[in-house]
């Protein structure tokens, strides 16, 4: 496949409700959409970097710069060759993933193969979980959780931080004794909080996600010895090599896989394979994706090792109007798109209405 060029689109989508985590509050999703044009084929990718470098070092404007200056000149028509060509560029996994996913979409569309078939999906639909942000009060949280449970979500994840942990988790657990429930701290604690975090042990949580800073593998291993809730890593897992290391050291009983965090779907699949080999369950994380990123995530979540529900929620959990046909919850599940490539295309009317800037860069 010969690359003709790429189109970058900066779009802004209002979230249906503000989303607060331990690292900040989001009311809009600023999203960079990549379109690869090659031999008459085209492919779409979504960059999951946020507006600010608060979840990880990447941010939208930085990712766009890296894509233009360092990735486009290395882009080839072959997904594996491109991955190797990107490797000398240190870091920037979200920028790499956006471009390599768009390339993979074009490559698969040309072959009439879906993301799911290509990755090794074993299911036609995947269990959907939902990530619930930090709220102003416990009653407000309970209302939000009740509504998601009524919609059919198969598990709930509560964002936590110091000052918003025991009380909200206890309240949700009392109201929903059998609900699959987990927490996500986005690095907000230190090992000195171990005794405090152990107070959540009686709540029967599926896991606690990324309680400590991303570079603290040893700390997570020590914390895992001091609490009974399984420790799951998100931010720390940036490659299959680190996944193997964290698992071997006892720092990760569960792994959250996000293609954008690890440089793309090829590495995401390797992490899945490493975890399966170690008997470690995985689930698909989310970064408030539009339908473009969601389509690929849902296909990934259909791999055999994804035995826990992911943060792959319906479009309506995020956006009043998604960039693609909406992903809809049916009996608490989302359907894996079956068509070639992503199996979805952006609705150009919605995309144009949300686009604030477009740039075409010939190869
Ligand atoms: O840590 O999993 C996270 C959203 C943005 C950045 C980081 C995270 C999240 C979520 C929401 O938890 C997942 C989603 O529903 O897309
Ligand atoms: Mg997380």
From TrEMBL:
Native species of this protein?
A: Actinocorallia longicatena
Enzyme class (EC, first level): lyase
The reply on keyword Membrane is no
Identify the keywords attached in UniProt to this record, alphabetized.
Lyase, Magnesium, Metal-binding
Name listed for the protein in its UniProt record: o-succinylbenzoate synthase
Q: What is its EC number?
A: 4.2.1.113
**InterPro entries given in the database record:** Enolase-like_C_sf, Enolase-like_N, Enolase_C-like, Mandelate_racemase_C, Mandelate_racemase_N_dom, OSBS/NAAAR
Annotated ranges, domain Mandelate racemase/muconate lactonizing enzyme C-terminal? 138-230
> Which metal ions or organic cofactors does this protein require, according to UniProt?
a divalent metal cation
Matching entries from CDD domains are given as: NAAAR (cd03317)
